[in-house]
Design goal:
Helices cover 41% and strands 18% of the residues. The chain has 224 residues and is α/β, with parallel strands linked by helices. An 8-stranded parallel beta sheet has the order 7-6-5-4-3-2-1-8. The longest helix has 17 residues. The structure holds pyridoxal-5'-phosphate.
Length: 224
């Protein structure tokens, strides 16, 4: 029997693609979704899949392959970096020099240059991953010195719940950091991806300059 949600997913994707302004990339945040559901999103026009877990990504990747781009949006553990470098086109969540160096090492072995974003803890929340805003430049300079990494921009989460207006100052701050980073013109970098905004906050994120939004619930429905 065909999963009845597949048609809903496709309709959600078509609506979103019609709604988003040109130049804003749509990432389908696929955590907990079956490969069949992710494929339905791809068939409706999704070009970038966001994955939080390397194992889950490997299953979906086998099913769907390189017809789309794969973006890592979860917290990357050092022991998963080797596999991540095989699958992903972009790692959005680099938040320490140690992780950057591990990715650099594995990318060197794989003979590739790995595009990455720095994850910013824009709310300075102690429980959250990401580098604090005042450490972004330092990490960016360090990444610029790693030959098998290519820094492409910044990613932030912002608050999950509640009024999306409350996320606006954090998105604005991250955009300012992004522009400062562009202004540095660090060698070997190409700073043009600003990844921020999820289902409850993507409109605000776009108003504040996001170049890509990461949507899960809006595409696939609520997760269990
Ligand atoms: C789950 C997730 C999203 C999407 O969240 P929704 O609220 O379901 O749209 C975006 N980014 C990251 C990093 C996520 O883990």
């Amino acid at each position: 029997m065909i999963d009845p949600i597949l048609e809903i997913i496709k309709e959600n994707v078509r609506q979103l693609l019609a709604e988003l302004p040109p130049g804003v990339e749509l990432v389908a945040a696929a955590k907990q979704q079956s490969p069949e559901r992710v494929l339905a999103a791809v068939e409706a026009g999704i070009k970038i899949i966001g994955e939080n877990y390397v194992q889950e990504a490997a299953a979906a990747f086998q099913f769907i392959g390189r017809r789309v781009q794969w973006s890592f949006i979860g917290h990357l553990q050092k022991n998963k970096v080797k596999k991540a470098v095989e699958i992903f086109d972009l790692i959005e969540t680099v938040d320490s020099l140690e992780l950057a160096e591990e990715i650099n090492k594995r990318a060197a072995v794989a003979g590739r240059v790995m595009p990455v974003l720095i994850e910013v803890n824009s709310g300075c929340e102690p429980q959250k991953f990401g580098v604090l805003p005042d450490r972004v430049e330092e990490l960016a300079r360090a990444i610029a010195g790693l030959p098998h990494l290519k820094l492409r921009g910044l990613m932030t989460m912002g608050p999950f719940e509640g009024d999306p207006e409350e996320a606006r100052p954090y998105f604005r701050l991250t955009r300012q950091l992004f522009e400062q980073l562009q202004g540095l013109s660090l060698p070997g970098t190409d700073i043009n991806i600003l990844s921020m905004g999820m289902t409850n906050s993507y409109q605000v994120a776009i108003e504040e300059g996001a170049t890509r939004v990461r949507l899960g619930t809006r595409i696939f429905g609520p997760r269990q």
